[in-house]
Write a structure and sequence with these properties.
With 388 residues, the protein is of the alpha/beta class. It has nine helices and 17 strands. It has a single domain, classed as Purple Acid Phosphatase, chain A, domain 2, CATH 3.60.21. The protein starts with 39 loop residues before the first helix and ends in a 6-residue tail after the last strand.
Length: 388
């Protein structure tokens, strides 16, 4: 498998953290709104910071994104995250689902934050069924089209017991959602069993979906993932999916989390770690504690409800340079692909698109990673911009 240049962990500023409350960025352009998203009153607050700036720059063509049964050795899957349903951008999720069906992906993985739960909304317990109905209704067309749907929970899905119950009820028939694929179901404590943690194999490629909703990994989940990856030693490729990135790109990466979770991925010979949570699109290869490379892909916010900016350190790694009268920052993703940072109506610096997801195309041992977006007319586009 082809791997891009490796970013050595020692070159990054690292802080210790055991919780989801990341240390504040070293920039005034990014604000933290990752908790409290929800119904009416919270929607109004989020809409006030929702990015409204888009770009008219030409995008990379999608002609190289080949999906469907053109050859038995080539197939694709998509990863969505942070739907945060219900919200005023729900139509964007519907358009994305329609586009993925048209592309003919074999499976769709959702890496958490399907809903808007938080520790502060206990009074909304009665709305949980409506929340999850909006999620499953949005995803059901994939199942109807014969495309497997594989969810894991996010922090906004699991803060309180009734939020966890809603998630478990929504995907209690996980094997139906995963059809036609057979799942490897864990039997451990709640975080180490389905629908929180489980795995499957597709044409020699191993997918491990792990319950990682904080900058820490539960001991039982760690044990399950260690055993699962060991059992997949003969797989051609090994993907691990969690909600929270191992290496944050909007905050300083947390040394304690890297030291705890990194060796599990390293000893299990994971090729990719794919996550959401941070509402940015990012593709970078990092060095794990013992020096092995890990390609981490962060897939952004599929509903486009609100997005953030990479940290100044990440912007430096992307060689962001200001250009044009409007002061846009033109950047190149560490693993390739040009994008822009612009200011929204509230003068927050954000990535140029308000909704993103990622399509992975597997050909033998090679993986093509294609971040994408959907426009207001329901047309899928590349996230990366073409050269001017």
């Amino acid at each position: 498998m082809r791997l891009a240049a490796v970013l050595v962990l020692g070159a990054l500023p690292i802080v210790s953290s055991t919780g989801c409350a990341y240390e504040q960025l070293d920039t005034a352009d990014t604000s933290d709104t990752t908790s409290g998203a929800g119904d009416t009153e919270d929607d109004q607050a989020l809409l006030a910071i929702e990015p409204v700036v888009t770009t008219l720059s030409a995008r990379e063509p999608l002609s190289s994104l080949v999906v469907g049964p053109s050859t038995p050795r080539q197939w694709s899957f998509a990863v969505l995250s942070d739907l945060h349903l219900p919200n005023p951008r729900a139509a964007t999720v519907d358009q994305t689902i329609e586009g993925l069906i048209a592309l003919g992906v074999r499976l769709v993985i959702v890496t958490g934050d399907h809903t808007n739960g938080s520790e502060k909304v206990d009074h909304r317990r009665g709305r949980v069924k409506a929340w999850w109905a909006s999620v499953t209704d949005a995803l059901e067309p994939l199942h109807d089209a014969g495309i497997a749907v594989l969810p894991i929970a996010g922090n906004h899905d699991t803060y309180l017991s009734w939020q966890r119950e809603g998630y478990e009820q929504a995907f209690g028939d996980l094997e139906r959602w995963a059809a036609p694929f057979k799942l490897n179901l864990g039997t451990g404590r709640w975080g180490a069993r389905a629908p929180y943690s489980y795995s499957l194999d597709v044409d020699g490629v191993h997918f491990a979906l792990a319950h990682v909703v904080d900058q820490a990994i539960d001991r039982d989940v760690a044990g399950w993932l260690t055993d699962d990856l060991a059992a997949a030693a003969n797989a051609r490729l090994r993907f691990v999916f969690g909600h929270v990135p191992l290496f944050s790109v909007i905050r300083r990466p947390a040394r304690q989390f890297v030291d705890q979770f990194g060796p599990i991925l390293e000893h299990g010979h994971a090729d990719f770690y794919v996550a959401g949570h941070e509402h940015v699109t990012w593709d970078e290869t990092f060095s794990l504690p013992l020096g092995d490379p890990l390609r981490q892909v962060t897939v952004g916010c599929a509903s486009g409800f609100y997005v953030f900016s990479p940290s100044k350190a990440a912007q430096q790694r992307a060689a962001c340079e200001r250009h044009g009268a409007r002061g846009k920052l033109s950047c190149t993703m560490p693993n390739g692909g040009r994008f822009e940072l612009v200011r929204d109506r509230s003068q927050h610096v954000v990535e140029h698109d308000v909704n993103t997801f990622t399509v992975f195309t597997v050909t033998g041992d090679d993986v093509q990673v294609t971040p994408m977006t959907v426009d207001g007319d329901g047309h899928l586009h590349a996230f990366y911009l073409s050269d001017p």
